[in-house]
Design brief:
Elements lengths: L32 E2 L1 E2 L4 E2 L3 H6 L3 E3 L10 E4 L3 E7 L3 E7 L11 E5 L8 E6 L4 E6 L3 E7 L5 E8 L7 E6 L15 H4 L2 E6 L2 E6 L9 E8 L2 E8 L2 E7 L3 E10 L8 H15 L1 H16 L3 E5 L5 H16 L28 E2 H8 L8 H12 L2 H12 L9 E2 L6 H4 L10 H16 L2 H22 L1 E3 L2 E3 L3 E3 L3 E4 L3 H21 L6 H10 L5 E2 L2 E2 L33 H10 L11 H7 L3 H15 L15 H14 E2 L6 E2 L9 E8 L3 E8 L2 E9 L5 E4 L7 E5 L4 E6 L3 E4 L5 E7 L8 E2 L11 E2 L6 E2 L11 E5 L4 E4 L7 E4 L7 E8 L2 E6 L5 E3 L9 E4 L8 E5 L5 E5 L4 E4 L9 E4 L8 E5 L1
Parallel strand pairs: 1-39
Antiparallel strand pairs: 2-3, 4-9, 5-6, 6-7, 7-8, 8-13, 9-10, 10-11, 11-12, 12-19, 13-18, 14-15, 15-16, 16-19, 17-18, 20-31, 21-22, 23-24, 25-26, 27-28, 29-30, 31-32, 32-33, 33-38, 34-37, 35-36, 35-38, 40-41, 42-43, 42-45, 42-53, 43-44, 45-46, 46-49, 47-48, 49-50, 50-51, 51-52
């Protein structure tokens, strides 16, 4: 974390009246059914349908690069906007030190004139599809497990004339050395090629660290000619057909044989052309489908924001994974999605604090391969790190700089008082390596990668700790960036309590270093206590140090050090500390809501998710204006939601540990430590069951979700009951690849009907109530998109013919049935007809028919949107607290005259 400017409190902004709120039809949800599949050990989910409700949709062209939609294949990414046709800035995770320098711009100068427009980011397929009228479709896709992406054009009008595809760079003379590169000159130079195979631009070809890249393109399915326009622009002139594909790559030198990115680019493009568009698209979709099917999350708070919070979960997962499969991890600010040319910040290193926010959720979501990429940055540099530790500290041990370059260098740390005396980073890196073993059961990784790192990080602390009699203490270090050179920084005390017992346990398991364990245990037994005052933890021993940054370091023992949480002897102390923290949601890397979840504070956790999005999600593509980071608030959103649904950090499986009050409905399949794929569902304050798929045959320990109610553990394959208990926890042996169900004896899983979770495609804008945060862009004309109201009583759509009274008479969605649901904050909304941009009202606040005839929102345009908890909503007029109804379920006008909810007050919101 790297803030150097004062922390400013962000003011909450009201949602602009021009935004529409689209809430797709919910997944099947009922208190009488369950989606658990005992055969697969996971929830039954129609992923294609369910995830379509989280598509990001632009219903009018976006010309702002900063709002460009994001599409990536795991190594290469692009942000796409509408300028001179279709334009994108391309980047790759392995192109430059810390991913600092982006690849360049790709501009397809096709005809975009159209009366209708829609651009859709399909998270499930990983594609970005733009439709112009009904005769042109442009699909951006990727080739899986490569650096290649493509733009496929279907144009039923037939080919005529030519179109240009340009690859270009910005003014390279302005490029600054923000990445600590040894040769800036090579990054200010570009070389080109143009021949019968395609065109390309190369940079960084003389980088001593073997970084650099070639951005190149070719065409499949249409003829083309190639030319060099100038030193930073090359062009393909394409003779279009009805269906053709532009393939492009950001080929990195570090991944190229002989570091020859030019030849690598040629080879990659030739290979993808050989495979062909159709097969590549199928392979790409299958790659993303397989990715999503490893876990599942449904998080419904019962309010209007449920869908939004869940949408961000899936969008953030996509955006991180889209760059997460390279040789280097997604840099917290550079990533693979940028439209700021080569302008960036904090690019001289990877700050562990920020990187952990981006990555630490992915163990629970069953993507340990992403975490391994993050871990590899540190494990591959073990030798360099130990050598520097010997030079700086004179010990054969391991110190890890908080700000570390790609090769393990500490130049960004030792020159900064903010980070040069942080000692706890090595523990965090070692712990994440240990967790890789806990989630994957990879004993080779534990012995050859994790344990050497753990042992040397422990040895560093042994050499740095001082003694006062029998007590060990840290005489002077930084309590992260906020308190400098203090005694007993709580981060160090937590690090010792975390890592030393792990070292003892792993060395015993592996049969190594038995002579070291007594010394390690002595430190564990005699480490100084955490500093406290008035029932709360302090960041360090008194006296209070000057505050240099805005971190709540006193909460680090809660997360990510995993030393306290629900059910611990010091839980109340930790909760008091959380309540008194002095930097609530202080910047884009804040993790308060994860710590709230760990402490069982469900309402605070969900409020924190909203707060972080309100403050930092500023663009309709999910991105931020905050210059201290980009991807941290997205990654930490994932961790907060996962930790609210499942916790397993203390060798106990705990489901729904931090759910908010009210009509919460949650469903998930997530991974617990020791390889337990855990599924559960909760609705109407009732947890239905706990399903466990044991991947490795470890001992399972489950906290009883029903308190002291009698539960039983049943093996699903033969329905054998293994144990019955009323205890607060149950432990049982498991066999690998076997499914178990923990259920109430009085209401077992068999009491629920079987169902499959599904959803309906989003087609409009979503908004976070009481904030300026939105996802998607609405129609420029007011037609299309929007939301239709579907009356449950007679299966009719609500309509207002020619501006007349609203009635429920249409069997299909038409122009007058589309509304903007404008969020006014406080749980209230207004309805605005898309046909005439008029607000729905009933004059004189009586029982008059509802009509669409007012230009601005007034009392009769303000409705409370009531969630009925069964997938429907009701509308209640705030002026007289009456529900909107139409008597007798006929085609009568809608009015507001009923005090209680009946069938005519129940509507489904349908994307239109």
């Amino acid at each position: 974390m790297k803030v150097r400017t004062p922390i400013l409190a962000a003011a909450a902004a009201l949602l602009t009246l021009g935004a529409s709120l689209t809430v797709p039809s919910p997944a099947l949800a009922s208190t009488t059914d369950a989606a658990f599949n005992a055969g697969t050990g996971a929830l039954n989910v129609n992923y294609a349908a369910y995830m379509s409700k989280h598509d990001i949709v632009y219903n009018s062209p976006n010309t702002d690069p900063l709002k460009g939609l994001t599409v990536g294949n795991g190594r290469t990414g692009a942000m796409v906007w509408q300028q001179n046709g279709l334009t994108m800035q391309v980047s790759g995770v392995d192109l430059a030190e810390q991913s600092t320098y982006a690849a360049g711009n790709v501009n397809l100068q096709l005809d975009t004139t159209a009366s209708t427009f829609q651009q859709r980011l399909s998270l499930y397929d990983g594609t970005l599809t733009t439709r112009y009228d009904s005769n042109r479709t442009v699909t951006v896709l990727g080739s899986p497990n490569s650096e290649v992406m493509g733009v496929h054009v279907d144009d039923s009008r037939g080919g005529s004339g030519t179109i240009a595809l340009d690859l270009s760079l910005w003014d390279l003379n302005s490029v600054q050395n923000i990445a600590d590169v040894p040769n800036l000159t090579t990054w200010r130079q570009a070389s080109t090629f143009a021949d019968s195979t395609g065109v390309g631009l190369s940079r960084g070809q003389a980088d001593p660290n073997r970084f650099g890249y070639t951005l190149a393109a070719t065409v499949e399915g249409a003829g083309f000619t190639s030319q060099v326009v100038n030193g930073t622009r090359v062009r393909l002139t394409i003779t279009p057909t009805s269906s053709y594909t532009i393939w492009f790559t950001a080929a990195s030198r570090v991944n190229a044989p002989g570091n020859d990115s030019v030849q690598q680019a040629r080879n990659q493009l030739a290979a993808v052309k050989q495979t062909g568009y159709s097969t590549t698209l199928t392979n790409y979709k299958n790659w993303w489908h397989s990715f999503w099917q490893r876990s599942f999350v449904q998080y419904a708070t019962g309010g209007s924001d449920s869908d939004y919070l869940e949408n961000v979960y899936y969008l953030a997962t996509y955006m991180i994974a889209a760059g997460g499969y390279g040789n280097y991890p997604v840099h917290f600010i550079n990533g693979v999605f940028r439209t700021t040319q080569d302008n960036s910040k904090w690019s001289n290193g990877y700050w562990y604090w920020n990187q952990r926010d981006v990555y630490n959720s992915f163990y629970a979501s069953n993507h340990a391969d992403l975490m391994k990429t993050f871990n590899n940055l540190y494990s591959r540099n073990l030798g360099a790190l130990k050598a520097y530790t010997q030079t700086r500290y004179g010990t054969d041990s391991l110190w890890v700089p908080e700000t570390m370059g790609w090769d393990g260098n500490a130049r960004g740390t030792v020159g900064s008082d903010f980070v040069n005396d942080i000692y706890s980073t090595g523990t965090e890196a070692a712990y994440n390596m240990y967790l890789y073993y806990r989630y994957t059961n990879d004993t080779s990784y534990l012995q050859n990668v994790a344990y050497p790192f753990i042992k040397d990080a422990v040895r560093f602390y042994q050499n740095r700790l001082s003694r006062n009699g029998s007590q060990y203490y840290m005489a002077s270090s930084n309590a992260h960036e906020t308190y400098w050179d203090v005694k007993n920084a709580i981060t160090d005390l937590a690090a010792v309590r975390l890592l030393f017992p792990i070292a003892i346990q792993v060395s015993t398991q592996l049969g190594l270093d038995s002579g070291l364990r007594a010394g390690w245990q002595d430190v564990v037994n005699n480490i100084a206590p955490y500093p406290t005052s008035n029932g709360a933890y302090l960041p360090h021993d008194p006296p209070t140090s000057q505050i240099r940054n805005g971190e709540n370091v006193e909460l680090e023992p809660v997360w990510p050090y995993d030393r306290t949480g629900i059910g611990y002897s010091d839980t109340q102390t930790a909760i008091t500390t959380w309540n008194r923290r002095i930097f609530p949601y202080g910047n884009i890397w804040a993790n308060d809501h994860v710590q709230a979840a760990r402490l069982g504070l469900g309402d605070q956790a969900v409020a924190g998710m909203r707060t972080m999005l309100q403050k930092y999600q500023n663009y309709p593509n999910g991105m931020t204006t905050n210059t201290n980071g980009v991807f941290e608030y997205l990654g930490i959103h994932l961790a907060a939601m996962n930790e609210s649904l499942l916790q397993s950090y203390n060798d106990k499986i705990r489901v729904f540990p931090a759910v908010p009050g009210g009509s919460f409905a949650g469903k998930f399949t997530l991974l617990a430590e020791d390889g337990f794929l855990v599924s559960s569902e909760r609705e109407a304050a009732e947890t239905k069951y706990v399903g466990i798929r044991s991947l490795y045959g470890k001992q399972a320990r489950v906290v009883n979700p029903w308190g002291t109610q009698e539960i039983r553990v049943r093996r699903a394959s033969d329905n054998a009951v293994l144990t019955t208990t009323t205890a607060s926890e149950v432990s049982f042996a498991t066999a690998a690849n076997t499914t178990y169900v923990v259920e109430r004896t009085a209401k077992p899983l068999s009491a629920y009907a079987s169902t499959t979770l599904t959803g309906s495609a989003n087609n409009g804008v979503k908004a976070l109530s009481g904030t300026a945060s939105t996802l998607g862009i609405g129609s420029a004309t007011g037609g299309g998109g929007g939301t239709a109201l579907f009356a449950q009583a007679n299966n009719k759509y609500v309509s207002a013919p020619a501006g007349g009274p609203l009635i429920a008479s249409a069997t299909a969605i038409g122009t007058t049935e589309r509304f903007d649901i404008v969020d006014l904050g406080g749980g209230n909304v207004a309805l605005r007809s898309r046909a005439n941009n008029m607000y729905v009202c009933a004059e004189n606040a009586g029982a008059q028919a509802l009509i669409a005839n007012r230009a601005s929102a007034g009392s009769w345009e303000t409705f409370a949107r009531v969630d009925n908890g069964d997938g429907t909503i009701s509308l209640r007029a705030t002026v007289n607290n009456k529900y909107v109804t139409a008597e007798n379920a006929g085609a009568e006008p809608l009015i507001a005259n009923r005090d209680a909810i009946g069938p005519w007050e129940k509507f489904t919101l349908v994307s239109g």
